[in-house]
Amino acid sequence: MANWGGWVALVGGIIAGIGQWYPDAFLPVIGGIIAIIGAIGALAAK
Questions:
Q1: Which of 19, 33, 38, 46 fits 28 for a cystine, CB–CB 3.0-4.6 Å?
Q2: Three-class SS of residue 20?
Q3: Which helix (H) or strand (E) element contains residue 6?
Q4: pLDDT digit string (tens) for 10-46?
C-alpha cells in the first residue's frame, strides 16, 4: 500500500485524458486535482 500515490496519479491521469474529449464535464480539472494529490502521496510515501 506504500505506492498508492502512484496508482492515484495514474487514475487521475486517465480521468484527465478522458476529460480532453469532454471539457464541459470538468473532468480535466478533477483528473488534474486527483493526479496532483496522487503525486504528493507518492512523494510522501518515499
A1: 19
A2: coil
A3: helix 4-19
A4: 888 888 888 778 767 787 788 888 888 878 877 776 6
